[in-house]
């Protein structure tokens, strides 16, 4: 039996036993499906109800199913203009590939198709011949944990800076990251330009200190009063507090771009500096202009707080994105919706495993060490072995093993 038929049988079993609930205002949305090896093979589909969607999933069990962030009066119409846009949710996507964590050197690898060289890590250019190299990406608890941390920060920004707490929903993408849907009524009519402006805010694009209320007249430093600061100004002042509370002179020296001994002096003055921020004053040090310490420090804090969301996902109103709680056909994992309260302790590579545990024989398994369902597997080097169904799906779907 080929991998495609084997995987399709598993998808069919999943949809026969699972009802997919969560797409609000389903009849106004455009859907697209994908087949083995192709994430979107047809789109412009629509379903009048959750029942109709579930009947379709039971019958077809597609490898991928996505739906629009937008709602239309005629979702099946083409071209896109003919659909009659009613409104669109905001969507933010965080992908582990975009976030540089140290684990990449252990699970990612590169290969040059021109000269055949290859190795561990993420190398985009071949060191042998200088041509472009292909990177094979995997995920692990470390990079998904970092992705989750950024997702939690975005939620805080949405709630605190924009008041979008109504209609916020988060789900695992089913593969390498998280999707945040903002379905609040307030955002539905946002124009493309408005969406772009929000995105620039979140990603800290073109962030500069003066418009946020930071200034450095005649060697001194002024800031918004700590208690009254809003938006990015508040984020920066909180970040400074955080940097001081670590009591780590080495780290502070790097952030403020000062010698270690000056960072130590700054830490000694911590209480006075914090009091100054309450009053809207950025204290300097004897003989050093406030600007020289504070500008690098504030900009370092800003760099740590910028959120690297996928730009294309957030600005394309016509984008279709994985239907929450369906299966991602490249992994066999469920794109599970997770409550905001549970997100911090959520382990997607364990809790989104929905395929069974029966042993399946596979051959030519090729993979770095990987984590699934709370266990570690591999590494495999063209091995024949028996794997639980969920791990077999994970490798077969990305052509990293064959059915024996
Ligand atoms: Zn090469
Ligand atoms: Zn990782």
From TrEMBL:
- Which keywords does the record carry? DNA replication, DNA-directed RNA polymerase, Magnesium, Manganese, Metal-binding, Nucleotidyltransferase, Primosome, Transcription, Transferase
InterPro entries cross-referenced by the UniProt entry: DNA_primase_S (IPR002755), DNA_primase_ssu_PriS (IPR023639)
Active site at which residues? 95, 310
Q: Which GO terms describe its cellular component?
A: DNA-directed RNA polymerase complex; primosome complex
Q: Which GO terms describe its biological process?
A: DNA replication, synthesis of primer
What's the Enzyme Commission number for this chain?
Answer: 2.7.7.-
Q: Which GO terms describe its molecular function?
A: DNA-directed RNA polymerase activity; metal ion binding
Top-rank EC class of the record's enzyme:
transferase
User: Required co-factor?
Assistant: Mg(2+); Mn(2+)
Report if keyword Nucleotide-binding is assigned: no
Q: Which domain of life is it from?
A: Archaea
- Fetch the Pfam families from UniProt: DNA_primase_S (PF01896)
Please describe what this protein does.
Catalytic subunit of DNA primase, an RNA polymerase that catalyzes the synthesis of short RNA molecules used as primers for DNA polymerase during DNA replication. The small subunit contains the primase catalytic core and has DNA synthesis activity on its own. Binding to the large subunit stabilizes and modulates the activity, increasing the rate of DNA synthesis while decreasing the length of the DNA fragments, and conferring RNA synthesis capability. The DNA polymerase activity may enable DNA primase to also catalyze primer extension after primer synthesis. May also play a role in DNA repair.
User: Which protein family is named in the record?
Assistant: Belongs to the eukaryotic-type primase small subunit family.
What's the name of the protein?
A: DNA primase small subunit PriS
Q: Give the source species.
A: Candidatus Iainarchaeum sp
Point out the gene that encodes the protein: priS
